Amino acid sequence: MAEQIIIPPAKAPVLRLMTMPADTNPAGDIFGGWVMAQVDIAGGIAAAQRARSRVATVAVNSFQFKQPISVGDVVSFYAEIVKTGRTSITVDVLVVAERHPENPVTVKVTEATLTYVALDANGNKRELPQP
Ligand SMILES: CC(C)(COP(=O)(O)OP(=O)(O)OC[C@H]1O[C@@H](n2cnc3c(N)ncnc32)[C@H](O)[C@@H]1OP(=O)(O)O)[C@@H](O)C(=O)NCCC(=O)NCCS
């Protein structure tokens, strides 16, 4: 399947890093569980900024791996808050990979939606502050 080259959002990613051999699965691609962990961190950063407190992940609503990620790809995680409730924040996370530095392309590799809950210092859910 041809890679779908995309234009990433104009805003800054919340997380950006280069993938390493330690992050691979037995086939040599980047392990899906590693991607899921980074997506959870990226969405959690955006949610905690909005909540102005720690947050806990309460649900992974959707998660789609669209293209494999390779060692050496530069991976950027973009987070957008799409919904807030009384205590919860739902975040879309878009993951793009920049590959082939000699002839660079940027492709969409993962899309996910997660919901976080704002927590107080005791770990109990708390109401979101005004934005
Ligand atoms: C997060 C936690 C404190 C929420 O407590 P709770 O009593 O279950 O909370 P509620 O059922 O009242 O739900 C809280 C909010 O989350 C939302 N929510 C709960 N389950 C959800 C789901 N499956 N999908 C989407 N939203 C969900 C509720 O709609 C509510 O939102 P609102 O206040 O904005 O209306 C508790 O479930 C918990 O500690 N879970 C474990 C968290 C964790 O360990 N995460 C993994 C590591 S970070």
Count of helices?
A: 1
Bound molecules: coenzyme A
Strand content: 35-45%
* CATH homology group: Hotdog Thioesterase
Spatial extent as radius of gyration = 16 Å
Task: Give the tally of β-strands.
Answer: 5
Largest sheet: 5 strands, antiparallel
Q: Residue ranges: pLDDT <50 for 5 or more in a row? A: none
Biggest sheet, strands in spatial order? 1-3-4-5-2
Task: Indicate the mean pLDDT.
Answer: 95
N→C terminal distance? 42 Å
What's the domain count?
1
Order of helices and strands: EHEEEE
Q: In the CATH scheme, what's the topology name?
A: Thiol Ester Dehydrase, Chain A
Task: Work out the helicity level.
Answer: 10-25%
Q: Quickly give the structural class.
A: alpha+beta
Q: What is the CATH class designation?
A: Alpha Beta
Based on CA inertia axes, which overall geometry fits? elongated
At CATH level 2, the architecture is Roll
Q: In words, what does this structure look like?
A:
- The chain has 131 residues and is of the alpha+beta class.
- It has a single domain (16-118), classed as Hotdog Thioesterase (Thiol Ester Dehydrase, Chain A, Roll), CATH 3.10.129.10.
- 15% of the residues lie in helices and 40% in strands.
- The chain is built from 1 helix and 5 strands.
- It has one helix spanning 32-51; strands spanning 15-18, 55-65, 74-84, 88-99, 105-118.
- The chain has a 5-stranded antiparallel beta sheet, with helices on one face.
- It is elongated.
- Residues 56-59, 85-88, 115, 117, 125 line the site of coenzyme A (COA).
- Coenzyme A binds next to strand 2 and strand 5.
